[in-house]
Amino acid sequence: MKKNIFVLALDDFTNALFGTIRQADSYRYHSLLPPRKIIAAANYSMPELLATASRQLERFEGRVDAIVSYWDFPTTLMLPTLRRAAGLPTTSLESILRCEHKLWSRAIQREVVPEMIPRVSAFDPFAADPLSRIDLDFPFWIKPVKAHSSILGFRIECPADFHAATPLIRQRIGRFSDPFNYLFQRAEVPGEIAAVDGNHCLAEEIITAQHQCTLEGYVFHGEPRVFGVIDSLRETNRSSFSRYHYPSRLPQEVQQRMIEVTLQVMRRTGLNNEPFNIEFFHDPQTGRISLLEINPRISKSHCPLFHLVEGASQQEVMLEVALGIQPNYPRGAGAYPMATKFMVRRYAGDAWVRRVPRAVEIAAMQQEIDGVLVMVWVKEGDRLSEFTDSDSYSFEYANIFIGGKSEEELLSKQQRCLEMLPFEFEPLTAQAI
To answer: How far apart are CA 222 and CA 292, in angstroms?
Structure first.
């Protein structure tokens, strides 16, 4: 009998990737909440989301075998509540918060590897003089205690930068802080952390290292493991991601040091029977490693890369740990020795989407270029700022996943894909802005 897997906000692109895992025929997938309620939603009512999802589970006539998610906020925080209500084993809400609440996570990381953690300073953006609460020298980053995809993250070079960013944070932070606080206030949290709820931000020293990477792993019966390392390459603005590359080109000894730190830190978080990814920086000049952040989920961005290289999406790991099965993830069974995800971005300001590639055009591109998958995030008529969950410096409107035999081949395929994917934008007029 097939296992019934409920996936929060299951979209068509990722649903197709479930077919790449080795036990695909053993599972039946059900979307828990429609994607429009989660993916780039204008707002999130946490009580409504939990109630709607719970009703859907209660009305299901079969057995609920697992509830999983590959999205970030708000789904990761919802999982413990939904699983408990469905009678399923789950990691605790507190263990999720130890990963996702940026101040709490930094405090735990500092207990384990203080030399790898930048200085931080929490502040209330609604205070009369929030800059005076920050005990850091310029430049530094500011970001909400909880958001995702670098939303409302700003590099602050001087007081003018801070004063320009603060009104935007005040205007938009409620989209995340209100649903976050609904669950945060129900968790058992240390007093010093409880005082820093989702309406707060974190200022953080800038990590100057050049090489960023992500380790994908999982915790099974209390024991963390790592099964892949992916490089994250940034644009020249050093804020927006350009592409991901798998497997990492970092020296093996550097990767091993990161793995050892990961195992130590993840044990301290208390996360259990759950996948995770953890991000690091490496400075090749000094050899220094810095820990950036922890996410208690697989990265949906990496799923096609693992499929292209290893022969199965790492969704396989997500499902198995949720079902209480020790993962035995494949190695090197894919069609290509390496793969990349290219983020297609617009830097020229907000705009209306006037044209996106037709299905026949994407099919023609994939017929000409082997090992290519495309995800288009926008549709004609969209306004970029109202649709995409992009960082503070660009608008990401499509992704291209590419497998190849060399980095030169990957970049060549990438260029040809861009030539064959016609997007058209109309800049906003002054009146529209």
So the answer is: 23
Q: Measured between alpha carbons, how far is residue 237 from residues 109, 118, 242, 377, 393 in Å?
A: 28, 21, 10, 22, 9
Q: Which H helix or E strand runs over 54? A: helix 46-59
Whole-structure pTM value: 0.93
Widest CA span in the chain: 62
51 vs 322: CA distance, rounded Å: 22
**Crossing angle of helices 102-112 and 93-100, rounded to 10°:** 80
205, 233, 249 — which closes off a domain? 205
Q: Is 130 helix (H, G, I), strand (E, B) or coil?
A: helix
Q: Which residue matches tokens 């606080």?
A: 181
Residue 148 is predicted with a pLDDT of 82
Answer yes or no: is pLDDT of 62 > 50.
Answer: yes
Alpha carbons within 13 A on the beta-carbon side of 48: 7
Residue 375, classified by CB atoms within 10 Å of its CB into exposed (0-12), middle (13-18) or buried (19+), is middle
Burial grade of 328 (CB within 10 A; 0-12, 13-18, 19 or more): exposed
Whether residue 109 lies inside any domain: the answer is no
Q: Determine which helix (DSSP H) or strand (DSSP E) holds 30, and give its type and residue range.
A: strand 27-32
What token pair was written down for 213? 């990477």
Cβ(302)–Cβ(246) below 8 Å: yes
For residue 67, list its beta bridge partners: 6
Q: Which helix (H) or strand (E) holds 172?
A: helix 159-172
Write the CATH number for 67.
Answer: 3.40.50
Buried b (16+ CB within 10 A) or exposed e, 117-148: bbebbbbebeeeebeeebebeeebbbbbbbbb
As a whole number of angstroms, the distance between CA 184 and CA 97 comes to 8
Chain segment 78-105, per-residue pLDDT in tens: 999 999 999 999 999 999 999 999 999 9
DSSP per residue, 230-281: EEEEE-TTSSSEEEEEES--S-HHHHHHHHHHHHHHHHHHT--SEEEEEEEE
Q: What is the pLDDT of residues 235-275, one digit of tens each?
A: 665 556 789 999 999 999 999 999 999 999 999 999 999 99
Q: What is the CATH number of the domain that holds 193?
A: 3.30.1490
Q: Which helix (H) or strand (E) holds 156?
A: strand 154-156
* Residue 112 belongs to a domain: no
Pair of tokens at residue 153: 């993250």
Q: Examine the domain organization and report whether 353 and 382 are in the same domain.
A: yes
